[in-house]
Design brief:
It is a single chain. With 213 residues, the protein is of the alpha+beta class. It folds into two domains: 134 residues, Jelly Rolls; 66 residues, Winged helix-like DNA-binding domain superfamily/Winged helix DNA-binding domain (Arc Repressor Mutant, subunit A). The protein is built from eight helices and eleven strands. The strands form three sheets. A four-stranded antiparallel sheet has the order 1-8-3-6. A hairpin with a 5-residue loop joins β4 and β5. α5 packs antiparallel against α6. The protein is globular and about 60 Å long.
Length: 213
């Protein structure tokens, strides 16, 4: 029953009785693949009929513009679902690149197999809840970018991570360059501001670990 735990953790089976989990799981077309750091899972413009679960590692979604500028839209860590909005859309065309941010293992769930399952009504309800969670997460990104100041953007982002983790110390699974792309700021400006925030006693950090003081 490879990937059963990932499917349960994703929330896809939440509307079913636990006694039906195995039956529902066996009706799904599920596959998995390992990706190297920097390897693309989906390219912008790909047509997909599956959603994905990060079993191990992390995946970033990004937009590359004609001038070569890259904007990281979101980061999906272990247990996160990605690609769902595009898989549910009428066109099923991805508007972003999805790139493995480190060595990762990704689980793919066929939307066609969900529609064919005798538990499709329950799983479609679960998909709606999963989409709602995704929209809330995107709302946090909008909240971050609504802040004009670099320091304010960083603080909102750290508060979002603290709320999610329940700890004042959080790990950001992005390099400084990627974090700057996520916040839509210059890398040098970000590094300078982080140093000032540390000096001001607002935060402490070492590598990828940040603590709100």
């Amino acid at each position: 029953m490879q990937y059963l735990e990932s499917i349960i953790d994703s929330g896809l089976l939440n509307e079913l009785k636990k006694s039906d989990y195995m039956d529902a799981f066996e009706q799904l077309k599920i596959s998995g693949r390992n990706y190297k750091s920097g390897e693309t899972v989906f390219f912008e413009g790909d047509i997909i009929d599956k959603f994905c679960i990060v079993k191990k590692g992390s995946v970033r979604s990004e937009k590359t513009y004609l001038n070569g500028e890259v904007h990281i839209v979101d980061l999906f860590d272990e247990g996160s679902v990605f690609g769902l909005a595009f898989a549910l859309s009428k066109s099923r065309i991805t508007a972003l690149d999805f790139v493995s941010n480190e060595e990762s293992e990704i689980v793919f769930v066929s939307m066609h197999s969900i529609r064919k399952s005798r538990f499709s009504n329950e799983m479609n309800t679960a998909l709606n809840y999963m989409m709602a969670d995704s929209n809330i997460k995107m709302g946090h990104k909008i909240e971050i970018l609504a802040e004009r100041g670099l320091r304010e953007r960083m603080m909102v982002y750290l508060h979002v991570l603290r709320t999610k983790s329940g700890s004042d110390t959080v790990t950001i699974r992005m390099s400084r360059e990627q974090l700057a792309q996520y916040l839509c700021v210059n890398r040098s400006a970000l590094s300078n501001e982080l140093s000032k925030m540390k000096k001001d006693g607002i935060i402490d950090f070492k590598g990828s670990r940040f603590t709100l003081l």
